[in-house]
Amino acid sequence: MFFSSNIKFMRKRRGRTQDDVATTLNMKRSTLSGYENNVAHPGLEMLIQFSDYFNIAIDTLIKVDLQKLSESQLRQIERGFDVYLKGSSLRILATTIGNDNEENIELVSEKAKAGYTSGFADPEYIRVLPAFRLPFLSKEKKYRTFQISGDSMLPIQNGDWVTGVFIRDWTTLRDKEACIILTSDEGIIFKVVENRIHSEGKLVLHSLNPLYTPFELMVNDIREIWQFIHYISSSIPENSSAENYHLVETMKQLQQDVKSIQTKLNL
Fold it and tell me: Domain-by-domain residue ranges, the chain?
């Protein structure tokens, strides 16, 4: 357990004295000192207060040695990317930053997908992924780009690149949002979500291609969710206007044929 060392580490990281923290949490300084020196242990209500004060999940304060995390990981936690979803495993987002201390967008190619499934939480693995920047995206959010395979999300085609923003609270996903989802069994999938987490603890995933049937994904099988922002393609989407025109003309002809048959029957 790392609670005592973590609260001391975070207090000093934020430049707070024991008196500062004790006053804010309405406790005696000696009580806080006991917690930091691991000679006293807080109850549940006090754990919640520490969690709210540092904006860090209780499980993280207890189970994760924050002093061993990289600066970028600590920054992610402090910005709210320390995600615990009821009953799920801890997910601390591994990321990379440039020389200007701004975050990159890592690129996960088709060849890298297998490695990403097991290395998504490993800073060393994430560090070797190609990275780039898109200046029109917010610096306050975390993005990642994945290469898509298959034709289930047409008009986004096989081999296109899809960029998503990291979702830390899955319960906030709205129905009909397109998302890149890292799963424990299926790897990386790109689908439109129907959010049933609150009611049934699962997502129902839909394809844009009607040839693919929807399927369910339980929360415990999810590792990451990135909400669709945009995609990059090397090909121009096919113009279907000629096909649509032909379909309309065919329907008109069928309607005329039906009317003609009805007229003959009335005679």
Answer: 3-68
